Amino acid sequence: MRSMAHNPLSLEHILEEFDQCADLNHRSYPEIETDIVYFSHLVDTASFIKEIQEPFSKIRLDEVDQLLLQSQFTPGSDPKQVVVGILAGNVAIFHRGTVCLLDVYGPEMRSVQQSETETIIAGPHDAFVESALTNISLIRGRLKSPHLKIRKYAVGEISKTAVYLLYIKDVANPKLVEDMGRRIQSIETDTLNDGGMLTQFIEDMPNSVFPQFLITERPDVVASKLAAGRIVAIVDNSPTAISAPAAFFEFFSSPDDYYQRWALGTALRLLRYMALLITITFTAMYVSVTTFHYEMIPEALLRTLAESRNRVPFPPVYEALLMEIMIELLREAGARLPTKIGQTIGIVGGIVIGQAAVQAGLTSNVLIIAVASSAIASFVIPSYMMSASIRLIRFGIIILTGVWGNMGLVMGIAVIVIHLSGLTSLGTSYVMPVAPMKSTDWKDVFIRAPFSMLRTRPKQVGTSNRIKQKNRK
Amino acid sequence: MLKLRLIPVLLLLLLTGCKSDERILEKLGMVQTASYDLLDNKRLKVTYCVPVTDPTSKVRRELMTTVSDSLKSARLQFSLQTDLKVVSGQVRETLYGTKLAKEGLGDYIDTLLRDPSIALGVRVTVVEGDAGDLLSKTFKSHNDTGRYITHLLDKESYGNSVPATTLYEFSRDFNDDGIDPVAPIVKDGGDKVVIEGVAMFQEDRYVMRIPAEDGIIFALFRDDLRQGEVAINLGDKDGRPVVIMLSSLLNKRKIKVHQLGDGRFKVDIFASLQGSVLEYTGEEKINESKARHELEQKISEYITAKADLMVEQMQEHNVDSLGIGTYVRNGLNYKEWTSLNWREVYPEIEVKCHTKVVIKDYGKYS
Fold first, then answer.
1. Distance CA B201, CA B321 (A)
2. Taking a contact as any Cβ pair under 8 Å apart, which residues of chain B between 41 and 80 contact chain A?
C-alpha cells in the first residue's frame, strides 16, 4: 500500500503507471510549473499545436489557472480516469498538484476507400474503415434521424474494445435489441480484434458452419438493414459491421440488386440460387454418376465421359477430392499472396490443373469442368462467409456421393436442410420466409420485386412497424 | 441423446456394404444396341454392341456375338469374352431378326422389362433378314451401326412416317385388349440402312408389313398427328405425274363404332387433316378456292382409297394395329367384351375410312 501522504494524482504516480512505456511523451514547462503527458501517436497534431503548444509557450504563470478553467479541459479526479484518458488520446496537464485532461484524439487512420470483398458495379463505393466513429459517421450520413440510437459497450479484459450497438427506435424490436446488448455484455475475453470474432462470441450456434449474423463492409447495406428493423453492431478497429437477425437467404442478395432495374436484380438473384445448387452438386454429381449411376448419362455424353475417365487411375471420388483440394489451395494461395505474384500463381495453377493434370492422366477433363464451374459458382455468392461455408460443405457431399451415390447426395442435402431449419439467429428462424412460411416476404427473397411492391419490412425482425412505404396517391 | 444421434450414423454405416454395387464408368461395357436372332436349331444368336471408350483405340465399338438359350444367359457368356463388366443400363435399341419376330417377341420383351436397369424408352425394331448381320456390318460413313439406326428412326418417327416403337409402347399394345403392336422394319440397303416399312404384329408375332411410303397414311388413321409430310400422286397429265405434297400436317383422328347386334359392328374412322402445300406440279390454280376444294377432294379420295386397302389387308391378316378393338371394347360392358372373340369378329366387321383434307396455305408467292 502506498502512503496516504503520497498524492495519487501526482505526476510521479502517473508516470510510474506508465513505467517502461517508451512511446509516452512527457514534456515540462518549468516557467509555468506545468507538465504534460500524452501519447503523441494518439493525438491529432494540428489540434495539439493549437490547443497546447501555442498557448503554453506564450502564457505567464499567473494565467495558467485561468486557462485551465476553460471548458475543453476536464479536471481529473482519480488516477484511473487519468490513465484511461491518456490511453484514449487525451493530454494530461499537471499544474501545481491538479490534473486536467484535454481530448485531442486523432490518430492516423486509413481513409475511406472502396470495399475489397463486397464490390458492386452500380451504387456507392465507400466502405467501412477501422475507426468505429468514422464508420458511424458514414451511417449517420445516410440515416439522418434522431431515432438512430447507439449504445456503447467495452469488450475485452485487456483491449477494452468499444462495441457500438445501432438500432432505430420504434422500428427495431426492443426485445431483440436488449438480447443483443445482453449478449455483447456477457462476452468474456481478453481481446476483441474484429467483428468476425464478435459474431462467434454471440452467435446462437457457434459450432455450425453457417454464419448466423451478416457481416458487411458497406455502409449502404448497414443503412438498409437498420431501416429494415435489424440491429447492427460495430466493433472499433474492425472495418466490418454485423447485422442481426440474419436469414440464410439474405446472404444471397447483393446491394446491386436494388441499384439496378428490378428485372435484372431478379435474374441475378435467381442466378445466385442456381450457383448455390451448382456449387453443392456439380462435382458430387460427377462422382455419383461415374461411380454408380452410369444409366443416367445421356447418350451424347456417354462416349466423351467414358473416354475422359479411361486413363484415370483413381476412383472418381479420390479424383474429385484431389482436384477440389487443388482448387482450394490455389484460391487460398491467391488470397494470401501479393496481387502481382497472385496473378502468376493463378496462371501457373490454371495451366497445371487444367492442362497438365488431364494430359498426365490424373484427372478427366469433364471433372475439370465440373470442379471449375462449381468453384466459379461459389464465388457468385456475394457473402464471403457464406461462400466459404458452402465450399466446405461441398467436400462432405462429395465423400457421401463417393460412398452412396445419389442417395448420399440426397442425404447430404437433407442433412443441410435439416440443419438450416434448426438454426436460429438472435432467437429467430434462420430460414425465415420459408419456414415458418411467410409468403409475403418472398417477393424480396427469391426475386427482387419492383419497389412499388416492397412496402413492408421483413417478418423476421419482429417489428411492430411493418409498413415502410405508404401507398403513393 | 448421444445414443439417439448415433443410430442414424450406424444405420448409414451398414449401407457401406452397398459399395459392391459400385459401377465405375470406365470399367463397364455398356451395351448400347443388342440384336436377337433365332437360329435354325431354335437357339438364340445374340449380338451386343459396346462402345470402346479407349481414346487410343482405332475401333469405335466392340461387337460380341454368342449363341445361347436365353437373353440373360447370353450376358453371362459375354462376360467371359470381355475385360469389362457387361451392363445393360445404356441400351438404346434392340433389333429382332424377321425369323424371331415371326416366332413371337413376347418372352424377350418380358425379359427386358423385368430388368430394372433397362429403360422403358428402349427401341424395338424389326430387321428384315438377320439382325445380327446388320448390326455387325459397318457402314462406310457410320462407325456405329446401332446408333445410326437409332438416329435414323428417331428422325423419321419425328415426321411420323414410321412409328418408332419403344419397349413401353410395344408391351402396352401387346398386353392391352383390342390393339396389336407395331414396329418399324429396317433392312440392309447395301451401303446404307433403309427403313423398309411398318411391321404389324398379331399379339407378339410379326404377320404383315406395309411399305414405308404408306407409313404416313397408317399414322393418320392410328393417332392424332402434329407433324408430318405426305406426297400424293394425283395421276398423269400430259405424260407428267401430278404430285402434291402436304407438309406441317395436323391430324385429328376419330373412331366411331356402330353396334349392329349379334356381335356385328360397323366402324367409321375419320381423319381430318390440315396441311400446307409445299409442292404442286399440276395445272389448277390453287389460290382459287374452288380449285383448292376440288384438290382437297381429290387428296381425300386418294388417302381414303389407300386407307381402305390397308384396313382390308389388316383384316385379312387379322391384325388390329389401328386399335379398333379398344373402341369396340369401350362401347361394351365387360361381360359382353369377354364373351366376344375379337380375333374372330375383327376380320368380318365393316370398316370405312373417311378423310377430310383442308389446305391451310399454298405457298408464299403464288
1. 7
2. 51, 53-55
Helix H, strand E, coil C: the string for A46-82 is HHHHHHHHHHHHHCCHHHHHHHHCCCCEEECCCHHHH
Of A290, A311, A411, the CB nearest to B25: A290
Closest-CA distance of chain B to residue A310, Å: 5
Q: Tell me the C-alpha distance between A100 and A82, whole Å.
A: 8
* A115 CB-side CA count, 13 A: 27
DSSP A123: S
Query: What is the full DSSP assignment across B207-230?
Result: EEEEEGGGHHHHHHHHS-BSS--E
**Percentage of residues of chain B with pLDDT beyond 90:** 51
Closest CA to A307 of B21, B28, B142: B28
Contact: A315, B15; criterion CB under 8 Å = no
**What is the maximum alpha-carbon separation in chain B?**
96
**What Å distances lie between residue B194 and A62, B187, B228, CA to CA?**
120, 5, 19
Whether the ipTM is more than 0.85: the answer is: no
CB spacing of B55 vs A307 below 8 angstroms: yes
State how far the Cα of A329 lies from the Cα of B303, in Å rounded to an integer.
71
**What is the C-alpha separation between B99 and A178, in angstroms, rounded?**
86
Compare CB distances from A294 to B30, B55, B147 and report the shortest one's residue. Answer: B30
Using the structure block, give the residue that is written with the C-alpha cell 456477457.
Answer: A186
Residues 6+ away with beta carbon under 8 Å from B297: B357
Chain A, nearest residue to B23 by Cα: A292
Chain B residue closest in CA terms to A405: B22
Closest Cα in chain A, distance from residue B14 (Å): 11
H/E run at residue A196:
helix A195-202
Question: Which of A303, A404, A411 minimises the CB distance to B51?
Answer: A303
CA–CA dist A378, A392 (Å, integer): 11
C-alpha cell, A159? 483491449
Per-residue pLDDT of chain B (366 residues; tens, 9 = 90+): 677 888 877 777 776 666 677 888 888 889 999 999 999 888 999 999 998 888 888 888 889 999 998 888 888 888 888 888 999 889 999 999 999 999 999 999 999 999 999 999 999 999 999 999 999 998 888 888 888 999 999 999 988 888 889 999 999 999 998 899 999 999 998 889 999 999 999 989 999 999 998 999 999 999 898 888 888 888 887 888 888 888 888 999 999 999 887 778 999 999 999 999 888 888 878 888 888 898 899 999 999 999 999 999 999 999 999 999 999 999 888 998 988 889 998 998 999 999 999 998 887 665
Task: Give me the pLDDT at residue A52, please.
Answer: 86
Chain B partners of A292 at a C-beta cutoff of 8 Å?
21-23
CA A417 to each of CA A410, A421, A430, B285: distance values in angstroms, whole numbers, following the listed order: 10, 6, 11, 69
Q: Which pTM was predicted?
A: 0.84
CA distance B227 to B243: 20
Q: Within 10 A of A29 (CB to CB), how many other CB atoms are there?
A: 17
For residues B105 and B135, the answer to whether their CB atoms sit within 8 Å is: no
Does residue B14 contact residue B32 with C-beta atoms inside 8 Å? no
